[in-house]
């Protein structure tokens, strides 16, 4: 990595060099906006990587988005298809190849369409050498059945636990729900030796980084979007965010 101290983790499967970091979510609409975001933040201490999504990928093509970031940094690039792994199992291989060929380092999967798809997509990404981050619960209202949504509450636990059986150690949890972070930590820490959480839902969605940091444990990364890329001074905003990590 160009910048960032090495983690104290002993395994070779880590995605981010920092034990804790801020991951800017690059949900901007143009490559020019992306360029400005990365240029102003890539060398801020505590920035661990960049998360890109479907808006840039569909508008410009995933390889072009990756190339834009690579002009400034070799920090890890995480692709979040918003939401990947909700198709039939066989599509996992095609998805994995596209992401790997584009130069993406890791992918976020939300395998809400069943265990067969979950297993196939995770294995497909692992087979091409991409790191996998698995999520289940999202940050918005009326997502879970118990809160008026479509997704059965118990199924969320299964998504996370099934992933551990496939060697996944990195997980997305809702950063604006400290109680849910603690819940997933309690069910996963007995299955994963060095559990790492990635958490969206901060600032604009109500989450507080300092509170989530207390709940998440040693290895965790806050995914922050609008609070950085919509700031008048993105560098200053990134610096303020990284100060809240510990």
Structural class category: alpha/beta
Separation of the first and last Cα atoms? 22 Å
> Unreliable segments (pLDDT under 50, ≥5 consecutive)?
1-12
Radius of gyration, in angstroms, nearest whole number? 17 Å
The CATH homologous superfamily? Aldolase class I
Give the DSSP E fraction (strand runs of 2 or more residues). 15-25%
Concise summary:
The chain is 39% helix and 16% strand. It has helices at 31-41, 54-60, 62-70, 91-102, 115-127, 153-164, 178-188, 209-216, 226-229, 234-242; strands spanning 20-26, 50-52, 77-84, 106-109, 131-135, 170-172, 196-199, 219-224.
Topology:
Blueprint (H helix, E strand, L loop, with lengths): L19 E7 L4 H11 L8 E3 L1 H7 L1 H9 L6 E8 L6 H12 L3 E4 L5 H13 L3 E5 L17 H12 L5 E3 L5 H11 L7 E4 L9 H8 L2 E6 L1 H4 L4 H9 L4
Parallel strand pairs: 1-2, 1-8, 2-3, 3-4, 4-5, 5-6, 6-7, 7-8
Helix pairs in contact: 2-3, 3-4, 4-5, 7-8
């Amino acid at each position: 990595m160009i910048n960032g101290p090495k983690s104290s983790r002993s395994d070779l499967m880590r995605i981010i060099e920092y034990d804790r970091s801020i991951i800017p979510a690059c949900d901007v609409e143009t490559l020019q906006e992306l360029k400005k975001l990365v240029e102003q933040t890539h060398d801020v201490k505590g920035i661990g990587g960049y998360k890109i999504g479907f808006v840039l990928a569909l508008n410009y093509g995933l390889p072009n988005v990756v190339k834009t970031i690579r002009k400034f940094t070799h920090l890890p690039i995480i692709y979040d298809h918003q939401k990947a792994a909700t198709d039939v199992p066989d599509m996992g291989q095609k998805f994995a190849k596209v992401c790997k060929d584009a130069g993406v380092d890791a992918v976020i999967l939300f395998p809400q369409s069943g265990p067969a798809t979950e297993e196939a997509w995770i294995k497909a990404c692992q087979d091409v050498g991409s790191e996998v981050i698995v999520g289940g619960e999202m940050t918005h209202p009326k997502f879970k059945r118990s809160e008026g949504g479509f997704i059965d509450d118990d199924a969320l636990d299964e998504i996370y636990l099934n992933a551990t059986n496939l060697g996944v150690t990195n997980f997305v949890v809702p950063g604006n729900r400290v109680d849910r972070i603690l819940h997933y930590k309690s069910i996963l820490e007995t299955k994963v030796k060095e559990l790492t959480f990635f958490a969206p839902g901060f600032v604009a969605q109500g989450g507080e980084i300092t509170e989530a940091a207390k709940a998440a444990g040693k290895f965790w990364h806050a995914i922050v979007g609008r609070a950085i890329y919509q700031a008048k001074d993105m560098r200053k905003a990134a610096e303020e965010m990284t100060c809240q990590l510990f």
